[in-house]
Amino acid sequence: MPSPFATGSTNRFGRSSFGGGVSATNSNTRVILHGKVPANVPAVRSNTSTTVNLGLNSERSRGMMIARLRKQGIQDERVLDAMMAVPRHLFVDEGLASRAYEDAALPIGYSQTISQPWVVARMVSAMCENRVPVKVLEVGAGCGYQSAVLAQFIKEVHAVERIRGLYDMARDRLRSLKLIARVRLTFGDGMAGLPGVAPFDGIIVAAAGIKIPQALLEQLAIGGRLIAPEGSTAQRLILIERTGATTWRREELESVRFVPLKPGTQL
Ligand code: SAH
Fold it and tell me: pLDDT per residue over 168-211, tens digit each?
């Protein structure tokens, strides 16, 4: 049986150029319903070729991002440490690097986005609350940022991406950060999960479907947790814990806005 672990052979860590913006329905972001805090949907920006060298400043910017996440209620030190360690600016286009530590989703090409830092922190924290997951699955790797965060403290991270160009981008970025051995990336339709690798202690779905795929619920270990956005225009984060062989407990969390979960693959 072929290995489910994609290895790849090229090393083209470099920045692709993609213009385009991100719309309110395409942002992997939190939705604030009562207008107190802006939803942080970034303004559309044209692509620029300006080189933004964050250099040493990136550490300070990350520190500010972590302080903000704490204020927003994120408490899990494993998650905060992991997000402090991962250089988010290396996962976005050079023209957007200076905005990488804002609390905003940003375009990564192919009409997809890198999730808002708060959304990443919230999902990972909820999945890991009161447990130490050893094997997790991420559906929708995108540019690989959340996989890199998970790989900081989770032993076995499996991530699936359905768009070939993004799969390549994630692989190259994870490789250049020496994380590719810890994140097993698969190009494919993550709605089917990875039956050959299951059960998972945790599953994070980074794109919104009308319903959470049953295959993913079945691939959760008993006691494991899955977190996913659910809905079409109105979406919510749903936290599911598998309580027994045929029982799952469901909890609805915040309103969010994610890119759609789609079947099949895109070359
Ligand atoms: N996890 C990313 C978020 C990427 S956006 C981050 O760290 O920021 C969500 C991603 O889900 C997109 O790249 C999209 O192509 C992918 N996606 C949507 N449906 C999918 C499916 N069925 N299988 C795998 N990936 C999927």
Answer: 999 999 999 999 999 999 999 999 999 999 999 999 999 999 99
Q: What is the pLDDT of residues 21-44, one digit of tens each?
A: 333 344 688 887 554 433 333 333
Residue nearest to atom 14 of ligand 1 (CA): 140
Cite the beta strand spans of the chain per DSSP E: 29-30, 106-109, 112-114, 135-139, 156-161, 183-187, 200-205, 220-231, 235-244, 247-257
Look up the pTM and report it: 0.85
Ligand 1 centroid to residue 56 C-alpha, Å: 30
For 194-211, letters b (16+ CB in 10 Å) and e give beebbbbbbbbbbbbbee
CA of 162 to the centre of ligand 1 (A): 7
pLDDT tens-digit readout, 145-167? 999 999 999 999 999 999 999 99
* Known active-site residue 115: yes
Sequential DSSP letters for 60-113: HHHHHHHHHHHHTT---HHHHHHHHHS-GGGGS-GGGGGGTTSSS-EEEETTEE
* Closest ligand 1 atom number to CA of residue 145: 7
Go through the domains of the chain in sequence order and give each one's CATH number.
22-257 (3.40.50.150)
